[in-house]
UniProtKB/TrEMBL annotation:
Pfam family name, one: zn-ribbon_14
GO biological process: tRNA wobble position uridine thiolation
Entry's Gene Ontology cellular component terms: cytosolic tRNA wobble base thiouridylase complex; mitochondrion
Keyword Transferase tagged: yes
Record-annotated Cytoplasmic tRNA 2-thiolation protein 1 C-terminal domain positions: 180-208
Name the UniProt record assigns to this protein: tRNA(Ile)-lysidine/2-thiocytidine synthase N-terminal domain-containing protein
Ranges of residues in domain tRNA(Ile)-lysidine/2-thiocytidine synthase N-terminal: 45-136
Keyword Repeat recorded: no
Native species: Smittium megazygosporum
InterPro entries documented for this protein: CTU1_C, Ncs6/Tuc1/Ctu1, Rossmann-like_a/b/a_fold, TilS/TtcA_N
An example molecular function term from Gene Ontology annotations: tRNA binding
Length: 277
């Protein structure tokens, strides 16, 4: 689809695969770890790949297609897992600081079905196939729960996002201090980032054990590098220099007040409307 979009809109396109970045394709990872934990590898690698790709292309801002459904699912998952660090920043519409590549989610308040309907009626060429390896993903359970909840209360998705924005961490809670991975230079709260830990497991044949092994006990791994965009094998990029001072601080970007949306099940914005009557 993206290749067709490139031709249709005369856009520049650069495709970087996990094989290019990490030396492993997703199919190879699934063969090594099975279909139970493969989404963990994909999620970690994908998030880091966005920044790595941006650096390779000298981009300063990454825009993702996360929609309201995605954000609500993420909030639920972080609550259920007790992931305080991510819970405190997963609702930000834009995250950045002076050193970090900006990342924004312009469709944060747009329902998935609205995007699909727009693409359909505009006859846009879009990709709608689910990942082959996603049936057992933890996110899938959150999605099913959310859809069942939405059937009862149509405003549930925006309600959850609004609630997530209002969550305030207890002042006594200590969040992990962000520094840099000693191997690849990517931001990490441990000496090695999660991607390096997972790669060490894959390369040593103990991928599943690396999911639960403390980062501090992982031995140093082979330096990760990737050739430049022109694939010159004699020139590698040192990501340590790029990510040395990255921090996890993000700009708090609060949404417009959604109070008016919480009473109307059709989200017209009027608390006393007759839409639902």
């Amino acid at each position: 689809t993206v290749k067709r979009n490139k031709e249709q809109y005369d856009m520049e396109l650069k495709i970087l695969s996990y094989k290019d970045l990490y030396g492993w394709s997703m199919d190879e990872i699934v063969k090594a770890v099975g279909k139970k934990n493969n989404c963990t590898f994909c999620g970690v690698f994908r998030r880091q790949a966005l920044d790595r790709g941006a650096l390779l292309l000298k981009a300063h801002h990454v825009v993702t297609g996360h929609n309201a459904d995605d954000i609500a699912e993420t909030i639920l998952m972080n609550i259920l897992r007790g992931d305080i660090a991510r819970l405190s920043r997963c609702t930000d519409i834009m995250s950045s600081n002076d050193k970090l590549i900006k990342r924004s989610k312009p469709f944060k308040y747009t329902y998935e079905k609205e995007i699909v309907m727009y693409a359909y009626f505009k006859q846009l060429d879009y990709f709608s196939t689910e990942c082959t390896y996603s049936p057992n993903a933890y996110r899938g359970y959150a999605r099913i729960f959310l859809k069942n909840l939405e059937a009862i209360q149509p405003s549930s998705i925006l309600d959850i996002i609004y609630s997530g924005e209002q969550l305030v961490l207890n002042s006594t809670v200590k969040l992990p201090k962000q520094s840099s991975c000693t191997k690849c230079g990517y931001m990490s709260s441990n000496s090695l980032c999660k991607a390096c830990v997972l790669l060490e497991g894959l390369n040593s044949g103990s991928a599943n054990q690396s999911l639960y092994k403390p980062v501090s006990s992982i031995n140093k791994i082979k330096e990760i590098s990737i050739s430049d965009p022109d694939h010159n094998p004699n020139q590698n990029l040192d990501f340590t220099a790029h990510f040395d001072i990255l921090r996890a601080a993000v700009e708090q970007s609060r949404s417009p007040n959604l109070d008016n949306h919480l009473s109307c099940t059709t989200h017209c914005g009027n608390q006393n409307c007759s839409c639902s009557h």
